[in-house]
Records
---
Amino acid sequence: MAKVLRFIIFLGRFILAVAAILIIIAAIWMVFSDNLQDQLHMSIGGENRPNRYILPAMCLGMAIIAMAWFWVLHMLNKVVETLIAGDPFVPTNINRLRRMWIVIALTEFFRMAIVSFPVLSVSGNDEAFPIRIGTWFLVFVIATLAEAFRYGAALRRDQELTI
């Protein structure tokens, strides 16, 4: 099962890397393409045109989020590698899991700031803080797993000292 999980993580990392590169290319293209900007302004219509750098800025923000999730999957892959090796309760995994939940939480705060930032509001919705309960549940699950791994490592250390 761990080898299947390792393949799924590899696939997720590949998709995130391609998506981040494509999003960055799209953002650069939007900045330098006047024709595209005119078409976007026409589709939104009216005199209340958004700034031409709003969509590229949002794209770059989403690329940063994709890169953060790529890093999280990279750390998860290292945890799975120790699981395949048969020794998951190592102190480095505790630190990896802690960094993972912190990065996910920071990424979610960053995403909420981008979506709710008034200057970047393209849709006109005044949604204060678009909270994703599933993401915060994931943060709490990973934080709990980090503490469980810490406790497991302490038990293992005590068992090794017992004769």
---
Amino acid sequence: MKRILDHLIYPPWRVRRAFPAATLKAIEDAVAASERLHRGELRFVVEAGLSSSELWHGTTARQRALEVFSDLHVWDTEDNSGVLIYVLLADRQVEILADRGINRRVGEATWQAICRDMETAFRDGRFHAGALAGVQAISQVLTTHFPAHGANPDELPNAAIIL
């Protein structure tokens, strides 16, 4: 019951307080800079809470992240190298999903460690720093496994999204 209330009454202004325009711009700039170093494509999405239908069906942050991954076509890159950073504020959870090209080389434990670090920063109210640290950590992983070489087109938008 508490989870349902947390989601249904999570006001949009709290999202904008956690991720104001300056933070969203900093995330966009960090994603753009990151993508020059590797062949990965990052998307950063923040959602306040789930709908009543999703809550009724017991949708988890991970399940919702999979849906967003698909809806935003994060999988639709030349090297299958898309990565989604999904933040569900009402549950205070972060999920990182990577496309199959990356998952062949990077284990789930790596993504979970980055998620937990971001969640710790967010719990402390450090949304700006936590988001940028998460992008930087993912960039380091991708630079190791998918370094840029030759043509490196920017295949997905860099702007952070608030759903």
